[in-house]
UniProtKB/TrEMBL annotation:
Pfam families xref list: SH3_Tf2-1
This protein's encoding gene: Tf2-12_64
Protein's GO biological process: DNA integration
Domain Integrase catalytic: 84-179
Protein name in UniProt: Transposon Tf2-12 polyprotein
Signal peptide feature range: none
One Gene Ontology MF term: nucleic acid binding
Cross-referenced SUPFAM superfamilies: Ribonuclease H-like (SSF53098)
Length: 318
């Protein structure tokens, strides 16, 4: 069939394939390009190094490039592990799991993890659980059985930063620790607290530790310390240290819904980083306070991995 069609001149175009001398066309076009001619002249004069330095400096300091370009480097900020608890229920983490199928009047869960024994308490809550209800449930399901913890670690959920919650636990003698905005690497609230530290969990179960078996606390603390050091060692291999000074200008990696608060824009035009914003101070070892517009209404402390340094253009990059 193919051979029969190819013999008909009026159908020859169906089977034929055009042949283009692509390289020849490119050479011809480049020979007449004034930019290429200028580069060739600079190359003969030995000035290409300065020329390319200027091009590199321009690209590196371009405002649009700095906001949109994907960085090909390790994430910023070394791992800063939390202090290891010395006894059960001395330090706990709390977080909400929302968006669950509604069952009766419940649609969310409070997850409380003892950082020493990895014992977990799940508390069913209504979808619109208030600060007062959260406090009551915590006292009923956790403090009633294990006592008040010395440290409570959670994110910046409005329930955990409200005046009622903070003042109550301040009077009771408990310290509230918060993770930075959009970042839980330094304080794994739920995802890794119950599943990590396998080195320790192989040696003793959470029930054994809570029951106070002989030397369980000392053994658990030693394995937790080894696991934390091992995790930091491997995590730091995939990160690099970055430090900013007060007054430095940075870009901030915001969520798409947060970008909309800066101004109306199409989702396809949302940049990877917003800015520029100054740094008024440092908050911890790897977190910085950023001076954001008041209309954003988000937490002002960011982990260093969510910040990108601003490179200002210099007239003479050499």
């Amino acid at each position: 069939m193919v051979d029969a069609l190819s013999r008909k001149t009026e159908l020859a175009s169906i089977m034929s394939q055009p042949q283009w001398d692509i390289m020849g066309l490119l050479r011809e076009r480049l020979q007449h390009d004034p930019m290429v001619k200028s580069v060739i002249v600079l190359a003969h004069e030995g000035k290409t190094k300065r020329f390319w330095n200027e091009v590199e400096a321009y690209v590196r300091t371009c405002l649009v490039c700095q906001q949109d370009k994907v960085e090909q480097q390790k994430p910023r900020g070394l791992l800063e592990p939390l202090l290891i608890a010395k006894r059960p229920w001395e330090s706990v983490t709390m977080d909400f799991i929302i968006g669950l199928p509604k069952s009766k009047a419940y649609g969310s869960i409070i997850v409380v993890v003892d950082r020493f024994s990895k014992y977990v308490t799940f508390i069913a809550t209504p979808i619109d659980c208030t600060i007062e209800e959260t406090t009551t449930l915590f006292l009923k399901h956790v403090a009633k059985y294990w006592g008040l913890p010395k440290y409570i670690i959670n994110d910046h959920n409005p329930r955990f930063i409200g005046k009622f919650w903070t003042e109550l636990f301040k009077l009771m003698g408990s310290e509230l620790h918060f993770s930075t905005s959009c970042h839980l690497h330094g304080a794994p609230i739920i995802d890794s607290s119950h599943t990590s530290n396998g080195l320790y969990r192989e040696k003793s179960s959470d029930v054994q530790v809570l029951q106070g078996m002989a030397r369980a606390s000392d053994i658990a603390h030693s394995y937790l310390d080894r696991a934390a050091k091992k995790r930091k060692k491997w995590a730091d291999k995939k990160r690099h240290h970055t430090e900013y000074k007060v007054g430095d200008m940075v870009f901030v990696k915001l969520l798409p819904q947060q970008f909309k608060l800066l101004g109306p824009m199409h989702k396809g035009l949302v940049r990877r980083y917003g800015g520029l914003f100054p740094i008024p101070g440092k908050d911890g070892k790897v977190s910085y306070r950023v001076e954001l517009p008041s209309r954003l209404k988000i937490h002002l402390v960011f982990h260093v991995s969510y910040l990108k340094p601003y490179h200002e253009y210099e007239d003479d990059p050499s």
